[in-house]
Specification:
The chain has 10 helices and 9 strands. The chain is α/β, with parallel strands linked by helices and about 240 residues long. The strands form 2 sheets. It has a 6-stranded parallel β-sheet with strand order 3-2-1-7-8-9, with helices on both faces. α6 packs parallel to α10. The structure holds ligand BV8 and zinc ion. Ligand BV8 binds next to α10.
Length: about 240
């Protein structure tokens, strides 16, 4: 694949690269994206029906079982070439920061060392009542399992629709969008706020925004470079 010399120059000179990812970067690992009509997770469910605190209050067992179904789907899947190339970038660039909307943990598993998980991590749980972290060590027939501290219901450690992102994660991500030399936007439809505002903010701060996506998104207009294609194809060619 041919890359614009200006893009390659910016990468060569970059001291700090921010990489913002969405579900598309995990698609080639076998994890359905959220809005892909054929296979998207939401294709069979409405996000508002399941990924909200109201849904959990209304029907905790169904929400818990949906997350267990997703965990089972992800459990044996591996980071793909895009995750690995992004992690390997840390050996070439003084500072690389991952800002991901994904909850699958694949950037960590690929070896990225500085990962901001804006929407949490599906492998974590905490108590819906007392919010203490919970590690499931013993099998239980309770669905959802109960908190060892207050007997409240355990919930997955993700940010639901209608919940605020954790302040430290959000402020750090916004700061990086303002200061990184290059801001990659990979595999996101840019529909979920406030995460979707990061590429726009980076561009407004004069950062070089590079969009990688097989489809057009509303952020194409904010990007200095748009690379049309799959992350697993483009990212290793561009970064390695
Ligand atoms: C908030 C964790 C303040 C859960 C997720 C009404 C009430 C309250 C809030 C709102 C409201 N209306 C709107 C909002 C804001 C709301 C929002 O944005 N809603 C959307 C639907 C409009 N946001 C929130 O609620 C956020 N919090 O606003 O707090 C607040 C607080 C209280 C009250 C009011 C406001 C919290 C949002 C976090 C939601 N949690 N995940 C879980 O996973 O179960 S979001 C979920 O969507 C995932 O994290 C996912 O990453 C994210 C975004 O989707 P994408 O990653 O972009 O995935 P998508 O499928 O859409 O796109 C994939 C892309 O990849 C496509 O472009 C495709 O072309 C491309 N692709 C495909 N294959 C490849 C590829 N690219 C590269 N390579 C490939 N091979
Ligand atoms: Zn508790």
């Amino acid at each position: 694949m041919h890359f614009d010399p200006d893009l390659l120059d910016k990468l060569r000179g970059a001291r700090h690269i921010a990489v913002f990812t969405g579900a598309g970067v995990s698609a080639e690992s076998g994890i359905p994206t959220f809005r892909d009509a054929q296979t998207g997770l939401w294709a069979n469910f409405r996000a508002e029906d399941l990924a909200t605190p109201e849904a959990f209050r209304r029907d905790p067992a169904t929400v818990w079982k949906w997350y267990e179904w997703r965990r089972d789907l992800m459990r044996n899947l591996q980071p793909n070439a895009a995750h690995l190339a992004i992690a390997a970038l840390e050996r070439l660039v003084p500072r690389v920061t991952m800002i991901t909307q994904n909850v699958d943990g694949l950037h960590h598993r690929a070896g990225s060392t500085d990962v901001i998980e804006l929407h949490g991590n599906i492998w974590n749980n905490f108590c819906f009542q007392c919010r203490k972290p919970a590690v499931l060590t013993t099998p239980t027939s309770d669905i959802p399992p109960r908190c060892a501290h207050c007997d409240g219901m355990l919930r997955p450690g993700v940010v639901w629709f209608g919940e605020s992102l954790t302040a430290p994660a959000w402020h750090r991500a916004a700061d990086l969008s303002e200061h990184a030399d290059v801001f990659f936007c990979i595999g996101t439809s840019s529909l979920v706020e406030p995460a979707a505002s990061l590429p726009r903010y980076a561009q407004s701060c004069g950062r070089v925004v590079i969009q990688i996506n097989p489809e057009a998104t509303m952020h194409d207009g904010f990007a200095r470079h748009v690379l049309r294609g799959k992350a697993g194809d483009i990212v290793p060619q561009l970064l390695c």
